[in-house]
Amino acid sequence: MDAASAHHHRWPVVGYGGIAHHDRRWLAARRLAATTASRPTRAVATAQRRARRMITMFEFECCRASSSQVVRWLNVSRRVMSYTSSAPAAPR
What we know:
Blueprint: H1 3-10, H2 21-64, H3 67-86
């Protein structure tokens, strides 16, 4: 152990709250790593739950719908698709 590291270990620079600066940096890095690691997992799980719930609701509606309602839904979706494919691009 060289003189600089021995001095550092013997006399740590203490910041607010009695925690050494290097310890505060380490704690901040750990908190950041923990929050960024858990965010994508939570977002993916939430998106999957929403998609599953929407599919289940749609299946339920399709099972209970009459043939005329199904034809009406198909016509609406066909109109929406034709409009979105031929719609002008948004100004930039």
